[in-house]
Amino acid sequence: MALLEVRDLSVSFHTPDGVVEAVRGLSYDVERGKTLAIVGESGSGKSVSTQTITGLTRGAQISGSALFNGNELLGASASTLQKVRGAQIGMIFQDPLSSLHPYYTVGWQIVEMIRAHRKETSKKAARARAAELLGLVGIPRASQRIDDFPHQFSGGMRQRVMIAMAMALDPALLIADEPTTALDVTVQAQVLEVMRTLQQEFDTAIILITHDLGVVAEMSDDVVVMYAGTVMEKAPRRTLFYLSHNPYTKGLLASLPARGGRRGRLTPILGTPPSLIDPSERCPFAPRCPSAFDRCWHERPRLDPVSHDAEHTSACWLPHDVAGGLDDPVPARGGSPVDVNPAPETQEESA
Fold first, then answer.
1. Which of 16, 24, 237, 321 has the fewest beta carbons under 10 Å from its own?
2. Same domain for 191 and 239
3. In whole angstroms, how far apart are CA 311 and each of 25, 226, 271, 304?
4. 66 shares a domain with 46
5. Domain identity same for 196 and 121
6. Pairing, β 61-68 against β 205-209
7. Based on the number of CB atoms within 10 Å of its own CB, is 112 exposed (0-12), middle (13-18) or buried (19 or more)?
8. Is residue 272 part of a domain?
9. 271 in a structural domain
C-alpha cells in the first residue's frame, strides 16, 4: 500500500457565475521516500487538489477518496485533520511572507507548532528543536536568528524557515506548493538541496507542485500533468520527458526556453485554458491541440496505458502504441541542461 492513495478526487465550488469544477477525477499514489511532481498551467487544479486532501478547501463539494496511511482524509473531522496537518503531513506554501505571522519571531512560531502537536514537550526543548531545524536547513547563526522576525529574512531564508517548520515533527509526507517561485536561481538550488537532503534523511514522501519543468527533471520520480482540472498524462519522470504521448505534455516541453543550448523564439501553446464552469464533455485541450480531430470535440478521452506500460497513461484519442518526447536535454533553472538519464535503447540498438 502506498503512503497516500488518491482515487477519483473531484472538487467543485459554487460561485455567482455557476459551479466551478476545479478538479475532476484525479488519481495518483505517493510512495515513501519518493517525489511526485504535479505540473500544469495556473488554474489547472494543482493546489486545490492538495489543499482538499488536507481539509483546507472549506465550502467545496468533494467526492472521491484520499487514503493516508490507510486512513481516509476526505470527510474526516476537523480535529482529526488538525492532528494530521503538521505532525504527519507538512506543508510549504507558495508565499512564505504571507504564511508566517509578521508579529511573532520565527522561533516562536516553530515552537508553537511543535507544542500544538506534542503538548508534553517543554518550551525549552521545543526552542532547542527549532534552533536545530533552522541550522539543518542552512540558516547561519540559527541560535541567534531564532529570535528574528520574518521581515528580517530574505525570501530564500523565509522559505527555509517554512521548510524547517514543515519538517519539525518529521512528517511522512511533505507538500511543497511552488517552493521556488520568485526566488533567484542560486537560492532555488539551495532550497531544493535542503528538501532533497531532508528527504534522504527522513525517508519523506514529497508532492511537488511547480511550473518549472527543470525542477521536475531534477527532483521528481513520477509526474502528473494536469490541465483544466483533469489529468492529461501520468508517467515516471524519465518516460515523460523522453516518451511523452499527450499533445499538451508535448506543448509544455516544447515551450521550454533554450532547449539543448539553442536560443531563439519560444514555442508557446496557442489559445487560452477553457472555463471550468460547466465544462463540456470533450477533450479539454481540443481547442488548443494541433492534433485534434472529430472525436476529440465530442467525447472525453480516458486515461489509458501508453505502449502497454501500466505506469504511463495518457488521456488522448491519438493511438496509444506510439510515444515520443524530447531528444534534447531539459533546461534546468537558468537554462543549464539537467540529466534525466539517456533515452532507453530501441530494439534495433540493443540487438
1. 16
2. no
3. 17, 16, 30, 10
4. yes
5. yes
6. unpaired
7. middle
8. no
9. no
**Beta strand 18-30 pairing with 35-39:** unpaired
Q: How far apart are CA 182 and CA 165, in angstroms?
A: 20
Is 298 part of any domain? yes
Spell out where 191-315 has E strands. Answer: 205-209, 222-227, 230-236, 303-306, 309-315
Residue 305: which CATH number?
A: 3.40.50.300
Residues 151 and 110 occupy one common structural domain: yes
CB 213 within 8 A of CB 248: no
For the stretch 46-96, pLDDT in tens is: 999 999 999 999 889 999 999 999 999 999 998 999 889 988 999 988 777
The grid coordinates listed for 223 are: 509526474
Domain shared by 19 and 141, yes or no: yes
pLDDT at 314 over 70: yes
Q: State the pLDDT confidence band at 281, using cuts at 50, 70 and 90.
A: confident
- 15-33 tens-digit pLDDT: 999 999 999 999 999 999 9
Q: Is the pLDDT of residue 298 over 70?
A: yes
pLDDT band at 115 (very low <50, low <70, confident <90, very high): very high
pTM assigned to the model: 0.87
Asked if residue 86 belongs to a domain, the reply is yes
Cα 170 from chain centroid (whole Å): 19
For the chain, what is the domain count? 2
36 lies in the same domain as 87: yes
Res 262 pLDDT > 70: no
Q: Taking 90 as the threshold, does the pLDDT of residue 254 lie above it?
A: no
Would you give the DSSP letter of residue 329? P
Range of the domain at 333: 223-266+280-350
Within 10 A of 5 (CB to CB), how many other CB atoms are there?
16
Q: Residue 211: its pLDDT value, please?
A: 85
